[in-house]
Design a protein that fits this description.
Layout (H helix, E strand, L loop, with lengths): L2 E9 L24 H10 L6 E2 L7 E2 L8 E4 L1 H10 L1 H17 L8 E2 L11 H19 L6 E2 L7 H9 L4 E4 L4 E6 L10 E2 L11 E4 L5 E6 L2 H8 L7 H9 L9 E8 L10 H15 L3 E2 L2 H7 L4 E5 L33 H22 L7 H7 L1 H5 L3 H11 L6 H19 L4 H4 L6 H16 L2 H15 L12 H9 L14
Parallel strand pairs: 1-4, 1-12, 1-13, 5-6, 7-11
Antiparallel strand pairs: 2-3, 8-9, 8-14, 10-11
Helix pairs in contact: 2-3, 4-5, 4-11, 7-8, 10-14, 10-17, 14-16, 16-17, 16-18, 17-18
Length: 510
């Protein structure tokens, strides 16, 4: 068999918990469900564990689960929510990864994701490291093994990010075809071969590529098939499983040697964005397996079978969902939902600058207040994922034994917890959805402002007022398109529940 097929699903929702209650509140736009997590779980995450088709005779037929036959990643914060509110779904996801290891030569289909979907090229070096490490440790905690690959939020990439992945032992990532700059055969015999320009999505997606990094390390990259992925994400599923199978089979080339036919979309494509999409995917898998046209695989298995014999250079500071590099998360770049054609996104840049200033102020507080508490404050922050995954007193005792500068009294322990929680919220406030949509008055931007407010509140009392005052001044430069909302400063004061306003009252999700 020389044809292999892999369908990747990026399953993700931003963290939605109220920072003061830890619960997801009522989100009216998700009606009739109490919030978007509940709705998408019902429409997508649970159905993909048990796709059900109703034939003409009206008798429901359960198809094999999609998760065990595809490649996938789930956002760590989403998995944490599923563990609490839909444990049957999270159990199905873990079970599917175990089944996929049996199916795919010991290579599990789950891959990791940077922790809370921060646009990594826009993060500083410390946050890149923590986001990747937390994503790895969360994965190991939930799946009981180390990840072979990692999904980069929005596939946003630069060489520094790839260096961090390689340093932590990540073997591969997945990028869009537009993110390939040039390619050439690798190896000693081809070291002097000329590079081929493949910009404009002209890269051959049917093989893996080795990206060599400035440090001397390297990482494998799979560039997914762009036209097919776009077609699936924006309507091809409506024609059913047979049409999807034909589309996937059409990715093959009349060429010798093994070839990987692969697509990547949001996982929510299968059931949430397209009703019945999970059934179409399950039917397509069944048809392709029965036909013998291609063998289902995942990226880890294919990489073991076919190591890269080509190398590639990437287009840095690019992402799969922005035609302007990384503009969607820092500029008025015209990438938007389009629901309000006359709205502009001049607020994106000032919002990022405001959060960058807040991050730097909180980092200074963290370092100053950590003296005498942590032997190495930033190593302690990296390691604090252990206490997030297991918040028991015993886990905290072990954490302090490893990272405290010396014996800590109760007040110092309390301060240590507050400082670490402050830093956690300082990263949550960079969740990418805060910039993705059209206006700072939206649900997603308001949520990241709540995380910013909570981070400020967790800072020592003497630092709170000057930090928030500077933050508010910066937020005032981020205008809303809605005159009633004003600007990000007013949105923060009225909706974010910061130290200068009472916390927002929410109703816990079901």
């Amino acid at each position: 068999m020389t044809r292999f097929l892999c369908v990747h699903g990026h399953f993700y929702q931003p963290p939605r918990e109220n920072p003061w209650t830890g619960e997801v509140g009522i989100e009216a736009s998700a009606a009739p469900f109490p919030n978007w997590n509940e709705r998408i779980t019902a429409e997508c995450y649970r159905p993909n564990a048990r796709p059900v088709v109703v034939p003409r005779d009206g008798s429901p037929v359960e198809l094999p689960p999609n998760y065990s036959r595809m490649s996938f990643n789930f956002g760590p914060t989403l998995l944490a929510w599923l563990d609490l509110h839909a444990p049957d779904v999270s159990a199905s996801i873990r079970s599917a990864d175990r089944e996929s290891r049996e199916r795919f030569s010991g290579h599990g289909s789950a891959i990791a994701q940077a922790y809370n979907h921060v646009i990594l090229p826009l993060a500083n070096a410390r946050d890149k490291r923590t986001q990747v490490w937390w994503g790895i440790r969360d994965f190991e905690h939930r799946f009981g093994r180390s990840p072979e690959g990692m999904w980069l939020p929005e596939t946003a990439v630069d060489l520094e990010t790839l260096e961090v992945l390689a340093a932590f032992g990540i073997r591969f990532t997945i990028l869009a075809p537009e993110q390939a700059a040039r390619v050439r055969p690798n190896g000693a015999a081809s070291a002097d071969a000329e590079w081929m320009d493949v910009s404009g999505a002209r890269v051959d997606p049917r093989r893996p590529y080795r990206v060599r990094l400035p440090s001397g390390a390297s990482i494998a990259v799979f560039f997914y098939d762009g036209p097919a992925s776009h077609a699936i994400a924006f309507g091809a599923l409506s024609s059913g499983g047979e049409a999807l199978a034909r589309r996937l089979a059409g990715l093959a080339a009349d060429a010798p040697g093994p070839q990987l036919l692969h697509v990547a979309t949001d996982g929510e494509t299968y059931g949430h964005h397209h009703r019945g999409g999970e059934v179409a995917l399950a039917e397509a898998f069944a048809l392709l397996e029965a036909s013998g046209f291609a063998r289902l695989t995942n990226y880890g298995e294919f990489l073991a079978f076919q190591p890269p014999d080509w190398e590639a250079e990437i287009v840095e500071n690019t992402a799969w969902s922005c035609a302007h590099g990384l503009g969607r998360w820092r500029d008025d770049c015209t990438c938007r939902t389009g629901l309000k054609p006359d709205w502009v996104q001049v607020w994106r840049g000032p919002l990022r600058l405001a959060l960058d200033g807040l991050r730097d102020s909180l980092a200074e507080v963290f370092e100053t207040e950590s003296r005498g508490i942590f032997a190495d404050p930033w190593a302690a922050r990296d390691a604090s994922i252990e206490a997030i995954l297991d918040p028991s007193p015993e886990a905290f005792d072990d954490f302090f034994r490893r990272h405290a500068a010396g014996p800590l009294g109760p007040e110092q322990r309390d301060m240590a917890r507050r400082l670490l929680e402050m830093q956690r919220h300082a990263m949550l406030m960079y969740t990418s959805c805060g910039w993705f949509f059209d206006d700072p008055s939206g649900l997603e931007t308001t949520q990241i402002l709540r995380y910013a407010a909570r981070a400020i509140e967790l800072s020592p009392p003497a630092a709170r007022l000057p930090i928030e005052t500077a933050f508010l001044s910066s937020l005032a430069l981020a205008p809303s398109n809605d005159p009633a909302a004003g600007d990000a400063r007013r949105i923060y004061q009225q909706n974010a529940g910061g130290p200068s306003a009472p916390p927002v009252v929410t109703v816990p999700g079901v």
